[in-house]
Amino acid sequence: MTLVTRFAPSPTGLLHMGHAFSALTAWTAARTAGGRFLLRIEDTDFTRCRSEYTEAVFEDLAWLGLDWETPVRHQSEHRVDYDRALETLRDQGLLYRCFRTRKERLALAGVAPHADDPTDPAAFTGGPHAPDEEARRLEAGEAFAWRLSLDRARAQLGDLSRLGWSEEGVDPGTHSARPGALGDMVMGRKDIGAGYVIASVIDDAAQGITHVIRGEDLIPMTSIQRVLQALLQLPTPIYRHHPLLLDETGKRFAKRDGAVTLAQIRAGGTSPADLRARLGFPD
Ligand code: GLU
């Protein structure tokens, strides 16, 4: 079997060291195995993605010394496929509309809306609205998300922990899906259609990805993706999650914390070979 892997950034900001590490890990794995390396632009969310960031992805990765197959798949060009999958799930009764605002979700989760933590409660388990409330909010034209009901997925598939995947990265072995940790996740939104989770499983199948090589922060997401693969009858690739690269304070690199970007590193005069060596990929 030829190893086929991908680097799949979302162009919502400039790439930083963490991205470079992830891209180099996947690219090196492909080269070492005599396999294929694909680049995929995960730009389904047009409210957050920008074309200049997509351009910067190409520039940064080429500067880093990577090459990839063309044409590059841009998810924004395949919305129909993802929306069709969203519809398939909806037709099976697996999705429900969720009109709750962040404030409402926090209140349901018993978290004070003024809490310092700006993030959503990690797992939404509030379930569907009462039918009359749903009808009223739909009628009022309120924004909503389509959430995947894990209860309904369980009713269709049985015990979800029987779904497994083969992990070759951190904690190797067979992993069982434990989607409960992320609750009833958003699969799409009224305004933007199907989102990242659906798009990524569709594309991994469409592109014949045999090995998903990415950061270990996405291990919880893998459980949901595994459930989606079962519901949409898609193959399950092998996963190879790598440890996250940490900065000198021991924190993971993150766009939202203003991590130093590859563009800044490049402008500072670092050579690609130096950066590759710093990341553990000496020539
Ligand atoms: N687009 C995702 C991100 O930038 C990566 C998804 C994946 O590798 O499966 O976090």
UniProtKB/TrEMBL annotation:
UniProt-listed InterPro entries: aa-tRNA-synth_I_CS, Glu/Gln-tRNA-synth, Glu/Gln-tRNA-synth_Ib_cat-dom, GluQ/Sye, Rossmann-like_a/b/a_fold
GO terms classed as biological process: glutamyl-tRNA aminoacylation
Superkingdom of the organism of origin: Bacteria
A Pfam family this chain is assigned to: tRNA-synt_1c
Signal peptide stretch: none
Keyword hit for Zinc: yes
PROSITE patterns for the chain: AA_TRNA_LIGASE_I
UniProt-listed Enzyme Commission number(s): 6.1.1.-
Domain Glutamyl/glutaminyl-tRNA synthetase class Ib catalytic: 3-271
Gene Ontology molecular function: ATP binding; glutamate-tRNA ligase activity
Enzyme class: ligase
Keyword Ribosomal protein (UniProt): no
Keywords assigned: Aminoacyl-tRNA synthetase, ATP-binding, Ligase, Metal-binding, Nucleotide-binding, Protein biosynthesis, Zinc
GO cellular component, one term: cytosol
Family note: Belongs to the class-I aminoacyl-tRNA synthetase family.
Name of this chain's protein: Glutamyl-Q tRNA(Asp) synthetase
Organism expressing this protein natively: Brevundimonas halotolerans
